[in-house]
Amino acid sequence: MNNTVNNTQIKKTGGLIWFFLYLTFCFAGWYGARGTAAALTESYLIKLAGNRWAIDAVAFFASGLLPVAIYYMAVGFFRAALKNTPNLCLDEMVRYLPYFCMVANLCIGGVSVIFYFYPLASVWGGIISPVFFRTIFFGAYLWFICKRYVKEYNYATFVMYFGKLYVNIAIVVLAINFLMAVIR
Fold first, then answer.
1. How far apart are alpha carbons 178 and 184 in whole angstroms?
2. Lowest mean pLDDT among 33-37, 45-49, 138-142, 155-159
3. d(CA 184, CA 176)
4. Which of the two residues, 24 and 55, has the higher pLDDT score?
5. pLDDT averaged over the chain?
6. Per-residue pLDDT band at 115 (split at 50, 70, 90)
């Protein structure tokens, strides 16, 4: 029995994985974007005032756009940084990353559902929980990749480089979350 996955199977499921990744980013950012969407409806940009479900739908689908763009840029940096590294299965490493991101986003979205019922918890929880869950699952991803693809003598270099990359991206995401919390 052949357990290898060929490139045509990956290409067929790639769009579906990106779609589910986008939906999980929408779920993770929905609560934070609700305040922004409500503020826009009260102003001059969107005339959805009075239709609460339309506001939530706009908030849900719009909240995933910026995180997906940041994710796509981060994956581009990841590919560019490791492009010329010999003996590294770059395509397989990148293929596993969306799964870790999806689980982190589902955890963040689950915490956001709690904020829906307890709005006072969202003041700091909306800023801290995304960083907390993304850090945990990025660490799990690094551990998974190191154990599977990186030689033992390169663990420290690999983790330090991508740890720095993650910290820079996390600072940008944290600033966005902070601004969303202030706007709310």
1. 10
2. 45-49
3. 12
4. 24
5. 80
6. confident
Residue 83 is given by DSSP the state T
Nearest residue to 103 (alpha-carbon basis) of 25, 15, 14, 19: 25
Residue 116, helix vs strand vs coil: helix
* Residue in the block written with tokens 């409806």: 41
Please report the pLDDT score of residue 24 as a whole number: 94
**What are the distances in angstroms from CA 182 to CA 32, 36, 69, 80, 175?**
10, 10, 22, 35, 10
Residue whose C-alpha is closest to residue 133's, from 28, 21, 17: 28
The whole-number pLDDT of residue 169 equals 78
The Cα-based distances of 11 to 100, 109, 159 in angstroms read 19, 28, 29
Residue by residue, DSSP assigns 9-72 as: HHHHHHHHHHHHHHHHHHHHHHHHHHHHHHHHHHTTS---TT-HHHHHHHHHHHTTHHHHHHHH
Q: Which two tokens stand for residue 149?
A: 């693809």
Which residues, 6 or more positions from 129, have their beta carbon under 8 angstroms from its beta carbon?
Answer: 108, 111, 112
